[in-house]
Amino acid sequence: MNDKSVRLGIIGFGAQGGVYAGFVAEGKVKGMSLGAICDIDPAKKRLAEEQHPGVAFYDDYIAMLDSGDVDAVVTTVPHYLHPEMTIAAIGKGIHTLTEKPAGVYTKQVEQMNEFAAAHPETTFAIMFNQRTNPVYTDLKDLIDSGELGRLRHTSWIITTWWRPQAYYDQSEWRATWGGEGGGVLVNQAPHQLDLWQWLAGTPQKVFAKLAFGFQRDIATEDEVNALVDFGDGATGHFLTSTSDIAGTDRLEMLFDAGKIVVDASTKVTITRLTQDERSISDSMSVADVGRLFKGEMNTADLFSTEVKEYESVWGAQHVDVLTNFAAHINDGTPLIADGAEGINGVRLASGMQLSAWTGREIDLVDFPAEEYLRELNQRIEAEGKYPTRS
């Protein structure tokens, strides 16, 4: 057992970075201590000195990486910066936990993944904290067991991301193509995009309709309707927006031998068929159908239903990922989410955007990365505020 404390450097001392620094400083993350804080805003230096006296502060993240004060970093910075900062850190032998999303476009994420793969001695993880949520870890185990059979279709309505106009107006970079790289798909919904394919499998194709600046004065998408093809006949639907003040969070997954419904990420209803649905269908006589339509059939002979209720503890999931990150560095404990897996959500979000821009179905297996980047750069140029990407 290695009792070494991993000294964490926080790159970006904003809302999320401040929370992580607090968790570590308060001793909530086993095997980890607060090594240094970095931010380019001078006001953040004063804040860091007040909240974490004695902890080294840097206004240049490269200087922090070279300082000897940190063994690992977390990148709580704008999305475009995640890959370049991760590459810089790993190149210096500094373990890296990148924030979600892994990046904005697949080309930069692929470069990051390839670089990390060439340095396997340095830990590369991603903050998919929802993968520690018991609601979803229990479902992952159930689905992987094969008890419910093959997936038929799945739908996730996740519209609990209501954001008033003032939210977007508080920072010039928000919901811009050059500053943020997208809207609800890259800011609010990456966790669901990751969980969806973690549970259901990686989609092969996507066709989407997006609304850009539909109900908000922004350039990027604020409503998304997407259809995905998982292959072998399995399909899915994903709906998200930032203008539904009442909001819905409902995941449905239909399998050959059962169904899963998750409401508000806290209530799970699992239906288990007594045999697979086709067998039930093939075994029914005309008389059985009559009794079924009249409500005279005992459905207990067909299926059983289990309802589970979960409680969510705010912050616990982030602590779990940070603790796991430290444990992997110290003891080789398997990662909750390997950093390389972040590309799946980026590819899916980019595929949805590209489908909306071009009006065609997008192949996610052989993703047209260069075409996406050209389309993205056209929108960055039109904004006239930020440099184009390569």
Helix tally equals 13
Write the CATH architecture name of the largest domain.
2-Layer Sandwich
Number of domains: 2
Oligomeric status: single chain
Domain Gfo/Idh/MocA-like oxidoreductase N-terminal: 7-120
Keywords: NAD
Domain GFO/IDH/MocA-like oxidoreductase: 137-260
GO molecular function, one term: nucleotide binding
Structure description:
α5 (106-117) packs antiparallel against α12 and α6 runs parallel beside α8. The protein has 13 helices and 15 strands. The longest helix has 17 residues, at 342-358. It has a nine-stranded mixed β-sheet. The mean pLDDT is 96. It has two domains: 6-127 and 315-338, 3-Layer(aba) Sandwich (Rossmann fold), CATH 3.40.50; 131-311 and 345-383, Dihydrodipicolinate Reductase, domain 2 (2-Layer Sandwich), CATH 3.30.360. It is of the alpha/beta class.
Keywords, separated by commas or semicolons:
single chain; alpha/beta; Rossmann fold; Dihydrodipicolinate Reductase, domain 2; 6-stranded parallel β-sheet; 15 strands; 36% helix; globular; NAD
Provide a quick synopsis of the model.
The protein is of the alpha/beta class. It has two domains: about 5-125 and about 315-340, NAD(P)-binding Rossmann-like Domain (Rossmann fold, 3-Layer(aba) Sandwich); about 130-310 and about 345-385, Dihydrodipicolinate Reductase, domain 2 (2-Layer Sandwich). It is built from 13 helices and 15 strands.
